[in-house]
Amino acid sequence: MIKVGLTVISTLGLMGFVAVVVLALLLLAKKFFRIKIFDRTASFLRPSAYLSAFFLAFIASVASLFLSEVLHFQPCVLCWYQRIAMYPQVVLLYVALIRKEKVLTQYLIVVNAIGGLVSLYHYSLHILPRTMVSILPCSTQFGGVPCDKGYNFYFGFMTFPLMAFSVFALITFLLIMSQQTNSTLRQSSGRTKVRRSK
């Protein structure tokens, strides 16, 4: 069961990381080469952006609980910081979906940006453990596990913090896309009002 669980979680993490890389490359292609594939992808994802973000947060939260409560991978301090950024989003996105509101988008983007930065810092401790300055505390005095040890690389480069970063980044992409929808609608409605007034 442990092997199957880790295989499923690491495979989902790899898929998320690949999606982040593809979206980032499409965004760069749009910005520097005026290739519109990102716009087409965004227009396809926009209608279900909040729903997709909710499922990503939900799956990430369940996976982290599965790792600690079922497979007994004890989380370190930095793991808890990432969980603190992820867990509330499940409830907030669910409530936003039920109420059909997107007023929390800007706040959720900030939360995901912070969670993503913590994840990247945590991942840097895994790949450069002796050269990184300890900016964030990772105390083991209360029986916790060290943040730069006791990890495994999956597919040769992935650890749990990189998987967490992928989720934070994907949710950020989706939230930005959903926000662009709102601003586009406002602009088009403003143009319609101007035309009517003329």
Description:
With 198 residues, the chain is mostly helical. It is 74% helix and 0% strand. It has 6 helices and no strands. It has helices at residues 2-33, 37-45, 49-70, 77-99, 105-127, 160-197.
Describe the structure concisely:
The protein has 198 residues and is mainly α. It contains six helices and no strands.
- Tally of separate domains: 1
What fraction, in percent, of the residue positions are helical?
over 70%
The mean pLDDT is 84
Cα shape: globular
Question: What can be said about the biggest beta sheet?
Answer: none
Task: Please name the defining characteristics of this protein.
single chain, about 200 residues, mainly alpha, globular, disordered C terminus
Ordered list of secondary-structure elements with their pairings:
Layout: H1 2-33, H2 37-45, H3 49-70, H4 77-99, H5 105-127, H6 160-197
